[in-house]
Amino acid sequence: MKNIFRLDASIRREGSVTRAVADTLQASIEGRLGESRVKRRDVGLFPLPATAWAASALAGFVPEDQRSLEQKEAQKLAAELADELVDAQAFIFAIPLYNFGVSQHAKTWVDILLTDPRFAPGAPRLLAGRPAFLVVARGGGYGAGTPRHGWDHATGWLLRILRDVMELNVELIEAELTLADVTPAMASLRELAAQNLQDAHGAAARHGEKLASLLAPGIAAE
Ligand SMILES: Cc1cc2nc3c(=O)[nH]c(=O)nc-3n(C[C@H](O)[C@H](O)[C@H](O)COP(=O)(O)O)c2cc1C
Asked: What would the pLDDT profile of 118-153 be if each residue is shown by its tens digit?
């Protein structure tokens, strides 16, 4: 049985593009692997306590027998987050762009996770080479030549953490212009937005097929 870890960071349950595209990816994997087990952590709807980061980070500087209950609980949470990753053979991260930056809930998740000794600087990279997918959604358009090119300060940081710090083998799946349908000023971009969304779902389905064949070599990608 293969374990897949999925993180969701959208603050929306309904109408979320990152959730929908990640669902397509997950369904494509499960449709082929069947017996895969997806462990989900939803920091968008069930945020982690932001104070746990400082408590866990500073606990490392306090002798074990002198740590406060808050510090011990924060370390336990960090260990739980680390366990979820170490136990998985593949990963789905579904994370929207908020205020030109990374979702604070996803950032808190990363910050707490990195306080676990298994993810500390210098520790062996336990996840190195494992396949991962980063699904991002942006309300606007950020392509080269657009006025907001370079304003997405989330995707680069997330890739830095997932690729360079955790050494995951990451494929990026992007959907943008997701606000076109509800923003009158973006009406002329609706067709482009629909195409963009369709492409993101298409990429997710294809990546799911490839991942299934990677995790269970007997299964051929279509
Ligand atoms: C509080 C908030 C801030 C947002 N900030 C931005 C932003 O800075 N740039 C942008 O392009 N879209 C922004 N958006 C739009 C989201 O990126 C877009 O709706 C995306 O589809 C959200 O992901 P979801 O569909 O999975 O919920 C913001 C949305 C919310 C709710």
From this structure: 999 999 999 999 999 999 999 999 999 999 999 999
- Please, which contacts does 156-159 make with residues 24 or more away whose CB atoms are closer than 8 Å? 157/101, 157/102, 158/93, 158/95, 158/102, 158/106, 158/134, 159/134
Say how far apart CA 83 and CA 64 lie, in whole Å. 21
Give 56 Cα–ligand 1 centroid separation in angstroms. Answer: 30
Among positive and negative, which fits the CA dihedral 27, 104, 118, 63?
A: negative
Residues 37 and 1: beta-carbon distance below 8 Å: yes
* Burial letters 143-162, b for 16+ CB under 10 A, else e: eeeeeeeeebebbeebbebb
Q: Are 148 and 97 in contact (CB under 8 A)?
A: no
pTM: 0.96
Query: Which of 98, 103, 152 for mutating ligand 1's site (highest number of atoms within 8 Å of CB)?
Result: 98
Tell me how far apart the alpha carbons of residues 105 and 218 are, in angstroms, rounded to a whole number: 38
At residue 167, what is the residue type?
A: E
Which CATH superfamily hosts domain 3-215?
Flavodoxin domain (3.40.50.360)
